[in-house]
């Protein structure tokens, strides 16, 4: 792996505010060296964040430290976003995206949003901790082809079922795609979601399939 990607992963993993402040500079340096945004994201930023996740699980670090890393990742994504969405993109449709009620994780959702934007979708991002009625309201207002739900906690997965139920009750047949670390294809089928995306790349493929089926 290139030195600069290792540097990015190590700094993000340090969870130390002083050291982490250099991450955005390293991301710019990696771009200058000709690395692609995808490489920087996968092998630098997400490699570092995954090590953070391991330490968080082992109670070696706590929420404030994870937030320092998450913020650095967010700032780095602001630098990468224009590179991932540039070009003559054909408008392919609209997607309402949000993390379900009770859940504040948004790194994965934001990444999915960036990739879908790059693939030509207009993104209506409702943010995190979004109750089912807000998804329904946003679908009524914006008339999207697709709604995307994210959940990172096993305790909030069930909210996805509520959102799907709320769409049925409201008489809306907008396609719903779900994703997030604890989500599986089996769970998606069980709750009646139209698709499941395992990661941001898969989300782009599955959304394209849903749009083609319309
Ligand atoms: C960062 C983080 C946080 C940050 C979130 C910051 C932020 N702005 O998002 C903070 C510190 C706030 C946090 C808080 C908590 N967290 Co947390 N967190 C994480 C951590 C370390 C990384 C998650 C992440 O961003 N991953 C990187 C992204 C890129 O991956 P991803 O989210 O999976 O997304 C990809 C796919 O899943 C998919 N995808 C995601 N969304 C969608 C949507 C669609 C439509 C599609 C198609 C695909 C898709 O595509 C994405 C890109 O490839 C994980 C550990 C881990 N390894 O996952 C724990 C983790 C998720 N957290 C956990 C816990 C327990 C908590 C807390 C309850 C801790 C506490 N005691 O308070 C709180 C809950 C707060 C709340 N109400 O939500 C547990 C969950 C355990 C469980 N089984 O439920 C984990 C797994 C850590 C652990 N092993 O214990 N957390």
Description:
With 214 residues, this protein is of the alpha/beta class. It folds into two domains: 3-85, Methyltransferase, Methionine Synthase (B12-binding Domains), Chain A, domain 1; 93-213, Rossmann fold, CATH 3.40.50.280. It is 59% helix and 11% strand. The chain has a five-stranded parallel β-sheet with strand order 2-1-3-4-5, sandwiched between helices. Strand 4 (175-179), helix 9 and strand 5 (195-196) form a beta-alpha-beta unit. Helix 1 (3-14) packs antiparallel against helix 3 and helix 1 packs parallel to helix 4 (37-57). The radius of gyration is 18 Å and the shape is globular. The model has no long low-confidence stretch (mean pLDDT 93). Cobalamin is lined by residues 46, 49-50, 52-53, 56-57, 63, 66-67, 70, 102-109, 111-112, 148-150, 152-154, 177-182, 197, 199-200, 203. Residues 46, 49-50, 52-53, 56-57, 63, 66-67, 70, 102-109, 111-112, 148-150, 152-154, 177-182, 197, 199-200, 203 line the site of cobalamin.
